[in-house]
Amino acid sequence: MNATDDMTETKADVGGGASDLLRQIGQSKLAVFGAFILLFWVICAAFGYLVVPYDPLALDPLRSFAPPSAEHFFGTDALGRDVFSRIIVGSREIFLVAPIATLLGVVMGTMVGLIMGYFRGPIDAVLGRLMDAVISLPTVVVALVALAALGPSKITIVLVVGFVFLPYVARTIRTAVLHERELEYIEAAKIRGENALYIMTVEILPNVFSLVVVEATVRLGYAIFAVTTLSFIGFGIQPPSPDWGLAIFEGYGFLAAGFWWPTLFPALAIASLVVSVNLLADGIAETRGE
Amino acid sequence: MTLGKFLLGRLGLALLTLWLLSVLVFLASQILPGDVGSKILGPTADKGAIAALNAELGLDRPPLERYIDFATGLLRGDFGESYSQRRAVGPLLLESSLRSLKLAIVAFVIVVPLAVSAGVFAAMKQGRPIDRIITTIGLSAMVVPEFVSGIIVILILGLWLNVFPISATAPAESGLVTQIYHLILPAIPLVFVMFGYIQRVTRASTIEVLRSDYVRTATLKGLNRFTVIRRHVLRNALPSSVTVVATQVGYMFGGLVVIEILFNYKGIGLLLFRATRDKDFPLLASCVMVVGAVYLLFTLMGDLTHSLLNPRFRVGGKR
Q: Do A264 and B251 touch (CB under 8 A)?
């Protein structure tokens, strides 16, 4: 696939709505599989509290570390809480924090990318260097600095993840805008006397929008990666909230003692969620690309 | 453009980026926290004690003066003193970095041959089921957080099958082989995350090369498949893999933090984590600068190797 194909594809996509996208995703079996798992966890997060066999927060000190059984499908944790119930509702905070962080990063990144690509020259060079500086640090490292300075909170996590995503989104959008700005419709708009803001938002943005969508789905996978990782290192969602990363943080010290169930089941839940989002994102990227 | 000029340009950009990074890190670790003294001593601490601590740490001076101190300190290799450990940051950083380096080397020695051969193999079987399987596995392994795969390998390989020790630190005075043996389990999650990237880039560049005229010529003139791969395909496809491997070195730090916490391995990741927990801002700032500098260094080395391996690139020609 070369750059020219890429762009014509982008244009052709503008006409298609959400139903078109769904139909295209439907062609990839793996993407459909991913979508179903994702849907399962979203339903669990939304309605899980209504159907779980136990109160996810209820302590039962007499039954700590009960192994999996018919009574407690996934056993109980150190405090005697039902692991199965806590897993069913344990994705709530992830589905709140990760999409907001993704949205923030994609919106800011798209704006910066539009500015860099449209104006080029010194603005592009200065912003580009700043982006490079941010990209040289892994998300977890940026998060640690921010958390030390601002203290752990959901807002800090949203800001950190959004901030880290900004340069990646901006770079992708910038490349597409560099190509778009040379096309005739931009020339026409300039001759009509439109201002830069109008050209960027009304003329260019719709033509790079499918790229923004792909970027958002890919980034959502990484946002879940980052949010669960921060919970695991104890800087994310705080106890006693039922959360997968937090459950692993609280439980992994007991692995060597033989109590694997409070840790393994949340680990598998996280793995299934990130893989499902990734399969879906890959499917969406593929319908655009090939 | 000559190779020298190209690399000088890259070096200049890297130094500029490093300087910007030092400003960002200074702002985040020294200015953003506001009153550092009260952050360390807690909100209930005595006002006088907070002021005394701030004065002792030199935090009552103007920000610009503090930045100049911080930056010149970095240049001289003087990283200041850690609040929490009450010792110089420099040696602490050095011994931790060496431990992380050992873990990183073990991970790379496993992942590079594995991912490159998987990438070449997938490219040769392009479009067949085996290609789909390798690529999907690579893509999925890439997005599973290190602590999740870490838990799974600790359980299966460490505790249930008992193949590898679950402690990353070998007993004191152990030989190199024992040390490496202890590092295999922690290296596996890092391998998973990097495998996908390296495999995918190798696959893409191999496919591009396989479609080229010179490979067709080589095949048509009757060279056997192995010779074509070794002499023509690998030589042209590997430069892209080298570049991606170099950028992975930087990204691996994120994984190192998590893995070192999970395995309680005293490398730079665990140091960074403890600095955050203890609000030890000088230690935190130095750790972050090291991480950023190592990333930029490896990106630079990636550019260098890439241009040495690919002659067209170094004369500035378009591929």
A: no
Contacts of A137 (CB under 8 A, 6+ apart): A164, B21, B288, B291, B292, B295
- By Cβ distance, the residue of B139, B279, B291 closest to A141 is B291
Instruction: Tell whether A256 lies on the interface with B, counting CB pairs under 8 A.
Output: yes
Contact B252, B319 (CB under 8 A): no
d(CA B29, CA A264): 36
A164: closest CA among A101, A228, A224?
A: A101
Tell me which of B13, B151, B185 to substitute to probe the interface with A (most A C-beta atoms closer than 10 Å). B151
**Is the confidence at residue B314, as pLDDT, over 50?**
no
Distance CA A15, CA A17 (A): 6
Average pLDDT, chain B: 82
Please, which pLDDT band fits residue B176 given cuts at 50, 70 and 90? confident
| In the predicted structure, residue B235 carries a pLDDT above the cut 80 | no
Instruction: Please tell me the CATH superfamily of domain A15-287, with its number.
Output: MetI-like (1.10.3720.10)
DSSP letter (8 states) at residue A260? -
Distance from CA of B228 to the nearest CA of A (A): 24
End-to-end CA distance of chain A: 8
Question: Which residues are CB-contacts of A202 (< 8 A; sequence separation ≥ 6)?
Answer: A194
Is the distance from CB of A56 to CB of A86 less than 8 angstroms? yes
Cα distances from B296 to residues B12, B21, B32, B81, B292, in angstroms, run 11, 11, 25, 25, 6
The reply to whether residue A145 touches residue B28, judged by beta carbons under 8 angstroms, is: yes
Q: Does residue B123 contact residue B207 with C-beta atoms inside 8 Å?
A: yes
Give me the mean pLDDT over the A231-247 stretch. 82
Residue of chain A nearest B154, judged by CA positions? A255
A228 touches chain B (CB under 8 A): yes
What is the spatial distance between Cα B256 and Cα B97, in angstroms, rounded to a whole number? 11
Report pLDDT for B316.
47
Would you kindly state where each structural domain of chain B is located, as residue ranges?
3-75, 95-313
Instruction: Give domain limits for chain A.
Output: 15-287
Which helix (H) or strand (E) is A166 found in, with range?
helix A154-180
The ipTM of this complex is 0.81
- For residue A110, pLDDT beyond 80: yes
What pLDDT shows up at residue A14?
44
CATH class belonging to B95-313: mainly alpha
Q: Are A141 and B257 within 8 A, CB to CB?
A: yes
**pTM score of the predicted model:** 0.83
pLDDT in tens, B213-233: 887 888 888 777 777 777 777
